[in-house]
Specification:
about 160 residues, alpha+beta, 7-stranded antiparallel sheet
Length: about 160
Amino acid sequence: MAKILAAVTLPINPASSGPTLTIPQIWAGLMIKCKEPQHFVAAMSDCEVVSETATQIMRVITVGKEGMMGNEAGAKLRERIELVEPFKADFYMDNGTYISNIVSVGESPEELYMTFTFEIVPKEEMEAGSQAIKEAQAETEKMALATIRHTIDVIRQMVNDGKV
């Protein structure tokens, strides 16, 4: 079965933004995203953290009213999140879907980037290279860009509000 693949990257501190976010602030924001994803991902309405260690979070998320990655509203999805502080959170869903949130550094300490990668197992069989898979990948890329932008904006607002 073909997977829906996408990887997108955006700068965290473009010239037009402020305040400049640091890696510790971004990591703190990503940890909140892992435990309270509904503030970052509109398609999630609730989250229960089942267990947590320094390197792993087990959670059950509830899909919001719009649905998410082929899952209907109200569906409960179990995820294991592997944490590699301060740069990466890998999300493994029970259905085989894998998502990664990565923070990387450019040529200066303030030049930071956020990358989201997706390997989504579709609900219905899709053939590799088919028009359906290409359309799904294009939609996933659009969704991923919007999610990265929103994630950065939420973290920046949390910094402004003194929550991070």
